[in-house]
Hints:
The complex is a heterodimer.
Chain A: H1 2-12, H2 18-27, H3 35-42, H4 46-67, H5 69-77, H6 79-92, H7 100-113
Helix pairs in contact in A: 1-2, 2-3, 4-5, 4-7, 5-6
Chain B: E1 7-11, H1 16-29, E2 33-35, E3 41-42, E4 46-47, H2 51-61, E5 65-69, H3 83-97, E6 102-105, E7 108-111, E8 114-120, H4 126-140, E9 146-149, H5 163-174, E10 177-181, H6 182-192, H7 196-201, E11 208-213, E12 217-218, E13 231-232, H8 241-253, E14 259-262, H9 271-287
Parallel strand pairs in B: 1-2, 1-14, 2-5, 5-6, 6-9, 9-10, 10-11, 11-14
Antiparallel strand pairs in B: 3-4, 7-8, 12-13
Helix pairs in contact in B: 4-5
Amino acid sequence: MLKELQSLLLRAMQQADPHTFLQAEVQRPGQALSSEERAMLAAIGDDGLRLTRLIVRKLRIDRLLRGDPAMAELCRSDPAAFARLFASYEAATPPRAVFPADEAQQFAAWRGQR
Amino acid sequence: MTRARPWVGINLPADELFWQHNRRLAEERAELFEITPETLWSGGCVEGKGYQELAAFVKRCGRPVIGHGVLASIGAAERPARRDAWLQALQRDRAVFGFDWFSEHLGFADACGLHVAWPLPLPPTGEAVTTVAASLAELQAVHPVVAFENNADLFCLGDPLAQPEFFAAICSTANAHLLLDLHNAYAFCRNLEVDLDAWLERVPWQRVIEVHLSGGSESDCAWLTSGRSLRMDSHDDAVPEPVWRAFGTALQRASNLRAVVVEWMPDAMGAGAAAAFAADFARARSMLC
């Protein structure tokens, strides 16, 4: 099913090693995938998946920096500290925001809960 | 009867740096403008910074305007919760900007409640065709003429050379057009190691309403454990020669082509970039005369 395939690909984008995640999930019994979809997912190359994940992460950082001036300033003044903070945020909060303001709001909520 | 030649235009963001370097190109030479409405929205799809200024500019110029979206997620199997608000905003923008047609990137950016802001590839299945056609039908209720754009996907589900047939099936099912981004096609074929000419041979040319021209860049070898570099759709460099050659092919074959849009990302704009952008625009224009 297309819905299952898309869910797997988006979840793969949240993994440090999307290729290994996808290969394991495709083999897992009970996935609602046709044999054709299973074969297509299994054949995806590692490089393309990894670079796509990198772009997806960069876009999330862009959203946050555009939505939160304080984080934009931290990214400029102390990139390493920003990277650590963003990694914690990313690990704790799935990507749901479309606009920068929404990403900043999610980020503020996450910081408030820490 | 001879058909009118396609318009040659540029993407028109509301970005100060872009305007600083490209005002003359926009005001005096561009025959058409392409606007991405969602980049003018703030949260909740409401008018954001630069919206009214851009609307006033295109109204003053009186030239054709086309709308171009990135994140409607037209291939999402689960209809995104934001879809209704998105369509209402597009309806408003159509009235404001007077879009001649509207295009959207093919792919999905939403699933299981997640959003990734980047259209991911679809499998070339009947279910995907039906899904995209249903989304395009919703867009057609706002804009009678719609198109979808091929992406510079970094991976592919299925045979890369079968992709144009998938496009043809969507065009036919949805009565939609194809926005053929030639740099995306070049990058896709290079990254997936298929022949660009063979890919172009399979394109449903009668459905191509618009062509995009842009440049891109190579990914840093250090980014991938394999050390490989992939071609990226970054819109931050001059149009490369293989794309110009593909453009020559497109001009011969796309008999229903109505617009050529030269694109450059506003973030990557500067004096040198603006000169290259203007040169690409002039070259595209000269190839149509």
